[in-house]
Amino acid sequence: MTSRQKRFTMNSYITLTHQHLHHTEFYGIFSTYVYYLAPFTRHYRNNELFLSYMPKHFQEQKTAHAIRRRIEKAGPGCLWRPKDFPDFPARTVAKTLTRLSQRGVLTKINRGTYFFGKETPLGRTMPQASDVADKLFASKFTGGLHAYYNLGLTRQVPATLTIVSPSRNHIQKTKTIRRNIMHLKNASDQEFWILETLRNIKNIPDCPPHTAIAKIMDFIIKNNIETKRLIRFAMHEPPRVRALLGAISQDLGTPPDMLIPLKKSLNQLTLFKIGVLAVLKHAKEWNIE
Asked: pTM value?
């Protein structure tokens, strides 16, 4: 910018716009009296083009107003992260969300995640842990006590949500188990619950292994779950999961050729002491005691 162009500061620019209104193009309103185009406004003087620069803090203030309007327009009950505003500078978005949190407009859930709650007589509402998990995790499953409860293996209502995901994020009232679940792509929640239960068959509250296996078999039959899909997902699970699923599938009448991959993946010298011989007819064929 030349010395002649530098003379057009914000104050001189305001004077210029009022004197030469018909020579200027305007694309927004900063206040009641000042018109501006961010970040530069072009105008002419003596048939020459000049660019007037808008100070950085004016640009950030304009962006902050736009972000807050978008949040308020979406209404209470929404979770917000910086990546929800790809059309604004990332640094400005992060600063704006932090300031809105400090002013009490937003509630900070964890690093980079904010919630726009609703004011009630009992205070500001908070998001459900499941909604926060959906926002933070690209791929996840609900496991632990939640899986056992949904399969009907226990009556204990889970007070803490257990998330199984490749990534780890801290969420209140949530336990995160970091695990590779790439092999479970396209698996349903029900299919994951079955595999998760077989993985922890000895640690289910108030439900011994033989009772858990019997209820899992009933669940598979009632919900028409394909053992073929379970076998495909189980190929990357621990050996005890493959052995149990092989015995369950054989008892449910799965064709023998579908069980060959599971059979070959197991070490024939490994014994699995689980205590389910009473409910699995073919348990010994899978080295299960």
From this structure: 0.65
